Amino acid sequence: MTMANTTIGRAGRALAAAAALGLAGLSAAPAQAAGETVKPPAQSWSFSGPFGKYDAGQLQRGFKIYSEVCASCHALSLVAFRNLHEYGGPGFTEDQARAIAEDHKVQDGPNDAGEMFERPGRLSDRFPKPFPNENAARAANGGAYPPDFSLLAKARTYERGFPTFLFDIVTQYQEQGPDYIHALLTGYAEPKHGEKPPRPGLHYNTYFPGHWIAMAQPIQDGQVEYTDGTPATVDQYGKDIAAFMMWAAEPHMAARKGTGMVVLIFLLIFGALLYFTKRRVWSAVH
Amino acid sequence: MSAIHDATEPTRRDFLYLATGAAAAVGAGFLAWPFIAQMNPDASALALATSEVDVSQIAEGQVVTVRWRGKPVFVWNRTAKQVEEAKAVEIGQLPDPLARNENIEPDAPATDVNRAAKGKENWLVVVGVCTHLGCVPTSQQGEFGGWLCPCHGSHYDTAGRIRKGPAPENLPVPPFAFEGDTKLTIG
Amino acid sequence: MQGHSTYQPKGVAKWFEDRLPIVGLIHSSAVAYPVPRNLNYFWTFGGILTFMLVAQILTGVVLAMHYTPETTKAFLSVEKIMRDVNYGWLLRYLHANGASMFFIAVYIHIFRGLYYGSYKAPREVLWILGVLIFLLMMATAFMGYVLPWGQMSFWGATVITNLFSALPGVGTAIVTWLWGGFSVDNPTLNRFFALHYLLPFMIAGIVGLHIWALHHVGQNNPTGVEVKDFRKETVPFTPYATLKDAFALVCFIAFFSWFVFYTPNYLGHADNYIEANPLVTPAHIVPEWYFLPFYAILRAIPSKLGGVLMMFGAIAVLFILPWLDTSKVRSAKYRPMFQIFFWIFAANAVLLGWLGSRPAVEPYVTISRFSTFWYFFHFLVILPVLGLTEKTRPVPNSIADSVLGGAPATPASAVAAPERNG
């Protein structure tokens, strides 16, 4: 097998190099807009890496911020109240989740008279939208459409650049979205060179692509009260709401990473067994 | 690694082959499960949506059909005569002696009291799906004044119990609760 | 070349075999089939690809049980799969990442064929069938990517279908016909879903022919020398190749699992988590990574029709590759110059992929043009000329010589003739 081995070795190294380079084509992660962008600083997240889990306390704080600050404009239409007490989530009890549901008015109907009516939410309902449709949302927000929060943490990213994006495969860095959301909330500033907004009603933000964002700074230090001793700062709010939004976008992350570990351990054992079986069978040939 | 080496240690080799085969079988088994489980009701279906009915508008003797989990549920405001008829039946006469009422214990006998709403004996709430092969029976028809299934001729009485025909069981009573006198919540 | 089956059934099995010799067929092609004993692990990718095709079909069929091909519901139905369906997140991530894994495996498989000259006589039809499979894979992957109906789905569909508008005269009519309307809309989504479901089964059919052709002419091997002595130079497919393939497959599945369970969105686009909006194009649209080299070729040409022709030409040239490479020696192992050009070609293909992901501005445009030129230059000029002028290393007389270290004495030209008869 010596001859074959050297061939494997040489061609193998070369092809591995080609494969690694091939992945260089993957730097396709689109920025939100062309032009100058500032990379959001990477935060430390409890849910990063192979053993990462959502911090239930953080998700509950994030949910508090969402309810008190964001929910008046931003929908969360893909998340159901029952999700609040499901495995791997914010860890509310079923009764707490039901109470939260009942605090929301949900449209139902038509009733026997043919009319739509409102009733208190149930666990099976999804979060009601703050506006009936996009046009209503734009009309109420000076023409801007506050995006739905359900998937935003997966729908926002920034370019990682070469060779970082290759290392991301190994480090499993997947938190561009939460990093960006946190950066956006903490990125309100005076324009760098005193530029004027291209049209009135826009606000300067360091990290927003193109810098001019319709949303005014949505949250200030101390605006949302924390009862668990966590500092009530914009920086902390940004982390908490970003973590909550990541959960909303990827509610089964705990199950996914847990299953992954079992699968990889199984494959390691099965692969080793196959390797020795193969060697044993081939030993007669060599 | 020679053939001779193999021959001297057959058990170790056999163990290796067995272990590899077993690992493959276990892996295939676990891999198959998500493909099977995905066909079960999903989380939103399991979240058991409830249905609400305003019963104040249901006149005496009237049956109303409401939809619960995609199936019809009959809500019947029975007359005193219909209740009497149901009460008069001996348990021994019934093909299915069990109450089939999800609100009480599963082995309760199929008396009219066990079938009707608790404390409101005129109200009968049953899932409107024939226990034979799933057709929707027609209300206040058949030999016993309850339901007649048009598909294969199963007759149910005024307590929704099977009396004649191919159906094996009484019409099941779903979980439900009255809130006050006017609102009925099913599920 | 087909292995003579040693399958000798008795009793009921014989009765059945006399009426439908399917067990014997399986035995001769998957058990007794002789495999050159010197194959390296790059030869396991055929098996890996077969597995990936089956995996994509299985996950695809179960996803189709929950998916709704309707513009207002498609995006939501995919999210329902991700959130509510039992193991839906797993099945969908398997399918989405599976497409990328399929292409990683097929590119390794293709480059293995290029390196060891597996397209040369008598394997031209085998190679052409492979290129056909590659084309169908691209069509399937493209239409599958449209189904989640995100922003990238919609704009990818718009841009790619618009390629056909470059055709003179009939272009607009063809695009309208493809769309079933005047833009990518519900009829487009419906037909893409139908075709995305159909094409994998056509791929499976051509894979059957591909394997048939393979088993008829026999496998190439790292020396590129045909099998001469079956007893000494081959091993039966089962258990030798099956176990080796299985081991390689498990390693590949581990790689696949890493993406599915830990970085499931790494190979996708964030914009596809935004529902399709026909009124707003994302700032920077790019196709999936496996299309990037061809996308770069498309953009490198300053004329619309020219770009489209060059892009399709980049694949078309693969069909005639067996006749472009004039070398009598198959394996790059004995072709030092070809080896160099092979790696330059591979690096250039990767470079094209990277260029495809860049915005269409300088200096990328100029580099793309040079890179595109080199792609075609390699096939159309280097390969024909190199085959006639290259001084090759001595080729071993037989696989047995190569494996057992026998002295290779014969010059390349001398073995070329018997090789062609293989």
UniProtKB/TrEMBL annotation, chain A:
| Annotated ranges, domain Cytochrome c | 57-189
Select a single GO molecular function from the record's annotations and give it: metal ion binding
UniProt cofactor note: Binds 1 heme c group covalently per subunit.
* Transmembrane segment boundaries: 258-276
- Write down any Gene Ontology CC term: membrane
Q: Which residues form the signal peptide?
A: 1-33
Co-factor(s): heme c
Keywords from the named record: Heme, Iron, Membrane, Metal-binding, Signal, Transmembrane, Transmembrane helix
Q: Which residues bind heme c?
A: 70, 73-74, 215
Q: Which PROSITE patterns match?
A: CYTC
Q: Which Pfam families does this UniProt record tie to the protein?
A: Cytochrom_C1 (PF02167)
Q: Which InterPro entries match?
A: Cyt_c-like_dom, Cyt_c-like_dom_sf, Cyt_c1
Localisation: Membrane
Q: Which Gene3D superfamilies match?
A: Cytochrome c-like domain (1.10.760.10), Cytochrome c1, transmembrane anchor, C-terminal (1.20.5.100)
UniProt-recorded name of the protein? Cytochrome c1
Automatic annotation (TrEMBL), chain B:
Q: Which residues form the Rieske domain?
A: 95-185
- Has the keyword Acetylation been applied to this entry? no
Details of cofactor binding: Binds 1 [2Fe-2S] cluster per subunit.
How is it placed in the membrane, per its record?
A: Single-pass membrane protein
Q: Which family does it belong to?
A: Belongs to the Rieske iron-sulfur protein family.
What does the miscellaneous comment read?
A: The Rieske protein is a high potential 2Fe-2S protein.
Function description: Component of the ubiquinol-cytochrome c reductase complex (complex III or cytochrome b-c1 complex), which is a respiratory chain that generates an electrochemical potential coupled to ATP synthesis.
Q: Which NCBIfam families match?
A: Rieske_proteo, TAT_signal_seq
What protein name is recorded for this chain?
Answer: Ubiquinol-cytochrome c reductase iron-sulfur subunit
UniProtKB/TrEMBL annotation, chain C:
**Sequence positions that bind heme b b562:** 95, 196
UniProt topology in membrane: Multi-pass membrane protein
Gene Ontology CC, one term: respiratory chain complex III
Q: Which domain of life is it from?
A: Bacteria
Q: How is the cofactor bound?
A: Binds 2 heme groups non-covalently.
Domain Cytochrome b/b6 C-terminal region profile, first and last residues per copy: 227-397
Entry binding sites for heme b b566: 109, 210
Q: Name one Pfam family in it.
A: Cytochrom_B_C
> Which family, according to UniProt?
Belongs to the cytochrome b family.
This chain belongs to the protein called Cytochrome b
Q: What is the lineage of its organism?
A: Bacteria, Pseudomonadati, Pseudomonadota, Alphaproteobacteria, Hyphomicrobiales
